[in-house]
Amino acid sequence: MQLLETIKTVGVLGAGQMGGGIAQVAAACGLDVVLVDASIDIAARGKDRIGAVLARLVDKGKLPADARETLLNHIRPAAAPEDFAPCDFVIEAATENMDLKVALLRRCDAALAPGKWLASNTSSISLTKLAAATSRPDRVVGMHFMNPPPLMKLVEIVRAVQTSDETHAITKALAIKMGKTTTTSRDAPGFLVNRILLPMLCEACFALQEGVGTPEDIDTGAKLGLNHPMGPFELSDLIGLDTVLAIADVLHRETGDDKYRAPTMLRNLVAAGWLGRKTARGFYRYDENGNRTGASQGASRFPPPR
Ligand code: NAD
Q: First and final CA of the chain: distance in angstroms?
């Protein structure tokens, strides 16, 4: 696709687990990346985390040391969305919060030249609402990477009501250039993947609350009984419990369907700041190397009957 050749510099907004992974994937296919977070220090720390992930690959002999250097040289940390001025395509991957995303996308929109594209990695928020907040709604699209972006093959492309065919086509071409397989979803709460996933994650939590089984029992049941690569609590801890709760709340509010209501235990863990792997504690506890050390106190408040 000829238009794809016009995309040389990609902006990534949010240098957390998803933004960092997206920046890594974009740099790995030779694109220049401007990586922005709430401050340049946070963005630089995001780049350092990418460097550490790549260093482990070098140690294991899976990546040549010079390839690591080349990839990192493609990533430039920057301070604010205003630094996206030279970018051809911006992918927003900030915290899952509608007001925050609207405010950030407006700033990206003001910084970007006309004719450039704005994508959001949102897990659940209406792309149509996000697009309507900008001056280029036909050039706004959902580009929903899976976690972790360097390993997971799927990018779910979400078409806002306003997204043009050309924007859809270039987003698909860009995802393929990044080595991904795409699916396309209409703009509906949770799109396709999270509409299916969230009821399962929440149901596992309701079962835990009711004392039907321990987190380990439920995760083992899903892995060995359903052939899932990860159990629902392992996956929730990986996603981030704040993100899981935010998605459940969007699904519940937007559909009005109680099957999407969030369990109290999930809400409590988030209120405690126990967000999963990123805070070393969620449904499970983790040591400084990310190894699981046991169940979290919050998840053992509802012990199963003996
Ligand atoms: P995260 O908490 O790891 O990272 C969020 C980042 O946003 C943080 O670095 C934070 O500093 C930054 N941020 C917050 N306020 C900001 C601001 N004002 N300006 C700039 N940056 C700001 O979260 P994450 O898991 O990377 O999720 C990011 C997005 O990706 C969310 O929309 C989430 O729904 C989506 N997503 C997450 C997953 C997952 O499994 N975690 C999967 C697919 C999509």
A: 62
Per-residue pLDDT, averaged over 141-164, amounts to 98
Nearest atom in ligand 1 to the alpha carbon of residue 247 is 34
Alpha helices in 29-97 (DSSP H): 40-59, 65-73
27-33 average pLDDT score? 97
Q: What strands lie across the sheet with 117-120, from one edge to the other?
A: 75-78, 32-36, 9-13, 89-92, 117-120, 140-145, 154-159, 181-186
How far is 120 from 139, CA to CA, in rounded Å? 11
Please work out whether the CB of residue 125 comes within 6 Å of at least one atom of ligand 1: no
Decide: 279 in ligand 1 pocket, CB within 6 A: no
Q: Is the dihedral of CA 22, 27, 28, 29 positive or negative?
A: positive
Summarised one tens digit per residue, pLDDT across range 96-128 is: 999 999 999 999 999 999 999 999 999 999 999
Residue 37 Cα to ligand 1 midpoint, Å, equals: 9
Mean pLDDT of the chain: 95
Cβ distance 81 to 107 under 8 Å? yes
For residue 199, give both structure tokens: 């009821």
Q: Which domains does the chain have, with CATH numbers?
A: 4-186 (3.40.50.720), 195-299 (1.10.1040.10)
CA of 275 to the centre of ligand 1 (A): 13
Between 300 and 200, the higher pLDDT residue: 200
